[in-house]
């Protein structure tokens, strides 16, 4: 998606089952209703099924944190 200097980047993390795709789809709808600036939603997730088009979906990157 082309961006401009005014584009707002909204980053989300969806991991596990606590908040499903319905929650993120509702969030996207609310953002569309209330934000007048151009925006993009970037969702890092372990499961992108059911998310609306228009969200940019990426796998959660491996962080290699010590356990």
Note down, in words, how this protein is organized.
The chain is α/β, with parallel strands linked by helices. It has 1 helix and 3 strands. It has one helix at residues 21-34, and strands at 8-14, 39-45, 55-59. It has a 3-stranded parallel sheet with strand order 1-2-3, with helices on one face. Helix 1 (21-34) links the parallel strand 1 and strand 2. The mean pLDDT is 92.
Radius of gyration: 13 Å
Query: How much helicity do the residues have?
Result: 10-25%
Average pLDDT taken over every residue? 92
Overall geometric form: globular
Which sheet architecture does the biggest sheet show? 3 strands, parallel
Roughly what fraction of the amino acids lie in strands?
Answer: 25-35%
What separation lies between the terminal Cα atoms? 37 Å
Tally of DSSP helical segments: 1
- Give the low-pLDDT segments: none
**Tally of DSSP β-strands:** 3
- Class inferred from helices and paired strands: alpha/beta
Write the element-wise H/E pattern from the N-terminal end onward. Answer: EHEE
Summed up, what is this model?
The protein has one helix at residues 21-34, and strands at 8-14, 39-45, 55-59. The chain is globular.
Task: Please render the helix and strand layout as text.
Layout: E1 8-14, H1 21-34, E2 39-45, E3 55-59
Parallel strand pairs: 1-2, 2-3
